[in-house]
Amino acid sequence: MAAQEAHPVEDRIVQLLRRLGIEKAHMAAYLPGDWSGLLERHPSAVASLTLICPRGMKTEVLRPHAARLLIVSGDGGNVVADLMRAVDRLPGATLTMLRDYFSPMWADVMADRTGEVRSAMLEFLSLRDKESPLQPARLSEGDGGEAGISYTIRGSGPPLLLFPLGLAASQWDPLLPALAERYTTITLGGAYLGMVAFLETRGPGYLRAVRNVVDEVGLEPGQTVLEVGCGAGTVARWLARYTGKRNPIVGADINGYLLREAAGLAASEGLGDVIDWHSANGEALPFAEGRFDATMAFTVMEEGDADAMLAQCVRVTRPGGKVAVIVRSLDMPWWVNLPLRPELKHKAQTGYGDVVQGGCADAGLYERMERAGLGDVVMLPQYATYASGERLQQQQERMASRLTPEEAEEWRDAIAAAGNQFFISQPFHSAVGTKP
Fold first, then answer.
1. CA distance 191 to 4
2. What pLDDT is stored for residue 3 in this prediction?
3. CB-based burial, 14-46: b 16+ in 10 Å, e otherwise
4. Looking at residue 1, what is its pLDDT?
5. For the chain: N or C, fewer Cβ within 10 A?
6. CA angle, corner 18, sides to 15 and 24, nearest 5?
7. Rounded to the nearest 5 degrees, what angle is found at the Cα of 133, between the Cα atoms of 127 and 139?
8. What is the DSSP track for 8-24?
9. Distance between CA 429 and CA 380 in Å, rounded?
10. What SS3 state is found at 189?
11. Is residue 334 a contact partner of residue 327, using CB atoms and an 8 Å limit?
């Protein structure tokens, strides 16, 4: 993703808008990497902004535009308190809370709460249109691409840009018919946006942790590999290169949107001949018993029934084969290399994140591996360190969102004082076991 730094996302979006003849549009998004640069550098292009179950609020960027901001979020999960603190700093913003709804990054909110989100968005957009009407976009329906961003146009009326929605399987599809009745919807995708970009920017820190596990598996040339929950294929493509394309790889995921992006990225990198992509639920894998020499599941067992996933991983692995798992850790502290007073350091390093009931995001992984019937379980708690680039920026912003204004100022001063010695390390639990 080095090209992303040379050509920022906001410039790509502006280039796309110019290609389509659009000066200003309503926008709806999830991750700040998609919208923050636009508000900072091209605010005149943003008629309004809707944030759906957002991760990372960047209140300093949003505050001048709060009057044209809608936030839609579930009221459950570990990040709601952070969200509410951010909303308190955004007077004038409109907030819609979905009652009794847990909205982690993999929530399929458009499918789960179609009616509520539709009502909130259409009412908000209608008010914005009355205050400052937008010219209708005169575009033909269809697909296209510009500056590395893919798009699909539907409907007619004022332009509405729809950025990717986290790991949601349905993305915007359940809401598109209603939105397209009033707006020219422009649904965006590609490697530079949303969770695809987020996953791609994990970079050397995360892949170093993956490599430690893969090395423990000890793949031989020709052995087959299954990655459960492959997402956009970041690890599968890295593995294909790391093994010199000597191992057939199958990437499996329940999310059709991510699989489409994964296939496109693999083809663009010349890896389409070594990786096959399959739509599959990790709790009911559609592969024969003993099909693979090694089965891997990296940062997916937080999102479903971990024991069921492990049982499936064991089932599809041959006797003598290896099962390798990495989960995020909520029971190990993060490490922030900053000279902070103890109370603030503890607050910054306290673990956070979402895990569903039955999911695994702690040292219970090791016992689960043994209960699943695996032997010779090698336990590998480890850290992924982010010392530069977009992922470091993302993590420091997430931490800053948990702080009071006074703490946030102390945090920023400490980052400036640390200079190039500033890094953040994220904890993981990892294990490799052998099927008897």
1. 9
2. 40
3. bebbeebebebbbbbbbbbbbbbbbbeeeeebb
4. 41
5. C
6. 105
7. 115
8. -HHHHHHHHHHHHT-S-
9. 6
10. strand
11. no
Structure tokens at 332: 């190990």
Phi-psi bin for 226: left (phi > 0), alpha (psi -120 to 50), beta?
beta
Pairing of strands 424-434, 46-52: unpaired
Q: How far apart are CA 110 and CA 114, in angstroms?
A: 5
Tell me what pLDDT residue 6 has.
Answer: 59
Distance, CA of 378 to CA of 370 (rounded, Å): 10
What mean pLDDT do residues 311-334 have?
97
CB-based burial label for 360 (10 Å; 0-12, 13-18, 19+): buried
User: How many Å apart are CA 278 and CA 163, to the nearest integer?
Assistant: 25
Contact between residue 295 and residue 228 where contact means Cβ atoms under 8 Å apart: yes
Q: Report d(CA 74, CA 96) in Å as an integer.
A: 9
Strand, coil or helix: 2 = helix
- Write down the residue that tokens 């000279």 correspond to: 339
Residue showing tokens 């680039």: 389
* Tens digits of residue pLDDT in 180-199: 999 999 999 988 999 888 88
Residues 6+ apart with CB under 8 A from 306: 327, 358, 359, 360, 365, 368
Residue with tokens 């290169």: 241
pTM of the predicted model as reported, rounded to 2 decimal places: 0.83
Question: Is 272 within 8 Å of 263 (Cβ atoms)?
Answer: yes
H or E element at residue 285:
none
Residue with tokens 């005149």: 44
Q: Rounded to whole angstroms, how far apart are CA atoms 250 and 257?
A: 17
